[in-house]
Recover the amino acids of this structure.
């Protein structure tokens, strides 16, 4: 019978247009109201080379990419070998491949079985015959996918028109012909692949956004009017998008010579009274450590978005990992109060970016927002009406506060009103040195102790005002999972069938990591029998960090591994099932 959940993967060389195919499929599905998650993978080379694109289309809510591929499109088997472990086909998959590829099928061992359907397709020949160029083979493939698997044909046609309408009329016409030729070829196959045909009810159109796009849009929404950054994979799209759109909102963008300069730029921008932001990845965040201390000491609000990649060093620029947690939490010299947040998916990237600005502005300190390649660069459907979030601003001195203005006044919350250059009666001195309440440099122990306490109180204020976390599942559970960031997606999907089968499983997902929501965590731990920590970190950074916050229960296990491949639903589900078995066995012993 037809399916409500379909995952399609396409693999090819640079110029084959597999990413364009994925974009058009995702756009078409989003227009019809389907839920979509689209991910891409590249080699580490700067230009050219192999690439893959995987699109999951579902009539029901989803929160992670599909584990197994239902439909596999391969333009070149040599390229497939480079992604073999990342796009595994399901046992009874449908495989479309270039008919002229000389690679013997018997040598592939791609994981399919005898029930799989292999369809040789002369992609290049059809493209040449219909569109006059082999470059249209990806458009031909779209026609085949639309006819065989229910990918919305009219919506795909609109996507093709949108893609090529600004080019010459002949180019648009040729691609439309290629699309029609793909449909005609599929109709003539006479092969039953109805089990892989997508069925759904057309709904309200959805937005299709990546986490990086959502963060950029959120920055503008939050009032950011200055961005400085250095391009670094996988965060560069934030710089690119804001370079186009921020000037239209009255803001400015500077591409700096390095990440240290980028943070210095935005500290200056924020000191001048303008909400400011930068984005980077792990290597860049390492360079920013000194300037984070400056922003903390001078109490200047700044937002730093770190889209994590596999590390250390240059590591895996195009792959995801949750291994910057230690750096974000501990990577400063001296006692430098700062906040660390994390987002779980593209829609959450919007909300957490606004919260990063809110916390930074209200508490006047640096905020590091941890995203990941699998959040920042994946594209996912979002309901447009959900992209609304309250915006807050910094306190500015007024009235009696302007009489002998004390920029660093020692207040109960540690937060003191911040003026901007040129504000009458509110000029103050600031730099990276320790200072008194007026901002004058001072090196006496008593002053340092007093101002250290002042800055530390801001963290207490943040902890009370922003205990950001998510709890999924029942109030009492046999197994409680603690995870963060992108791990939330596969954990949530792995929990669903288990909960449906009657198992009591819950999850705790912190969205603020520093200061950590300790009391909600301890309440969660006390409500479950078995604890499972899940993370995409070889060293188990979350697990180690949790042990510094509270005493973890004796019955705590950890599932951790290195990045480079996102956590799958199946592997997480297997870990939860094992934890359920341990919980049941323990109950039998107690009985």
């Amino acid at each position: 019978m037809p399916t409500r959940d379909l995952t399609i993967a396409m693999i090819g060389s640079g110029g084959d247009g597999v990413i364009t195919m994925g974009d058009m499929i995702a756009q078409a599905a989003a227009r019809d109201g389907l839920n979509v998650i689209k991910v891409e993978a590249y080699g580490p080379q700067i230009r050219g080379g192999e690439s893959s694109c995987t699109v999951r289309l579902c009539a029901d809510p989803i929160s992670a990419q599909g584990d197994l591929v239902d439909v596999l499109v391969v333009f070149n088997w040599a390229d497939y070998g480079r992604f073999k472990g990342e796009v595994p086909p399901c046992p009874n998959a449908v495989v479309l491949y270039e008919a002229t590829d000389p690679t013997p099928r018997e040598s592939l061992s791609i994981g399919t079985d005898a029930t799989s359907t292999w369809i040789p397709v002369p992609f290049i020949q059809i493209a040449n015959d219909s569109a006059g160029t082999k470059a249209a083979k990806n458009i031909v493939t779209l026609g085949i996918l639309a006819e065989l698997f229910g990918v919305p044909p009219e919506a795909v046609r609109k996507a093709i028109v949108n893609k090529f309408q600004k080019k010459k009329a002949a180019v648009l016409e040729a691609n439309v012909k290629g699309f029609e030729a793909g449909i005609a070829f599929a109709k003539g196959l006479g092969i039953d692949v109805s089990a892989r045909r997508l069925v759904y009810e057309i709904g309200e159109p959805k937005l299709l956004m990546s986490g990086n796009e959502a963060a950029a849009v959120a920055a503008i929404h939050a009032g950011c009017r200055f961005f400085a950054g250095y391009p670094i994979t996988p965060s560069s799209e934030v710089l690119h998008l804001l370079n186009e759109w921020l000037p239209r909102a009255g803001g400015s963008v500077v591409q700096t010579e390095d990440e240290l300069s980028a943070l210095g730029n935005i500290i200056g921008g924020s000191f001048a009274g303008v909400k400011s932001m930068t984005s980077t990845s792990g290597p860049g965040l390492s360079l920013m450590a000194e300037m984070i201390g400056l922003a903390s000491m001078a109490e200047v609000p700044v937002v730093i978005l770190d889209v994590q990649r596999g590390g250390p060093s240059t590591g895996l620029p195009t792959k995801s990992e949750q291994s910057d947690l230690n750096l974000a939490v501990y990577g400063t010299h001296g006692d430098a109060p700062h906040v660390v947040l994390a987002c779980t998916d593209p829609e959450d990237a919007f909300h957490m970016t606004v919260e990063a600005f809110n916390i930074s502005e209200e508490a006047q300190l640096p905020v590091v927002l941890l995203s990941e390649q699998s959040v920042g660069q994946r594209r996912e459907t979002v309901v447009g009406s959900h992209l609304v979030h309250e915006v807050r601003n910094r306190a500015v001195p007024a009235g009696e506060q302007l009489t002998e203005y004390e920029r660093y006044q020692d207040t109960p919350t540690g937060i003191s009103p911040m003026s901007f250059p040129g504000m009458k009666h509110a000029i103050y001195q600031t730099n990276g040195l320790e200072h008194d309440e007026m901002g004058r440099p001072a090196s006496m122990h008593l002053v340092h102790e007093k101002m250290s306490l002042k800055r530390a109180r801001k963290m207490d204020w943040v902890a009370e005002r922003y205990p950001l976390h998510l709890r999924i599942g029942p109030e009492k559970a046999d197994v409680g999972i603690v995870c963060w960031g992108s791990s939330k997606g596969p954990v949530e999907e792995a929990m669903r069938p288990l909960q449906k089968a009657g198992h009591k499983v819950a999850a705790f997902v912190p969205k603020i990591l520093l200061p950590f929501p300790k009391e909600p965590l301890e309440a969660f731990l006390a409500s479950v029998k078995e604890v499972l920590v899940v993370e995409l970190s070889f060293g188990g950074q979350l697990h180690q960090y949790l042990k510094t916050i509270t005493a973890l229960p004796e019955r705590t296990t950890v599932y951790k591994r290195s990045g480079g491949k996102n956590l799958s639903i199946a592997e997480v589900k297997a870990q939860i099932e094992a934890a359920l078995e341990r919980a049941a066995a323990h109950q039998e012993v107690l009985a």
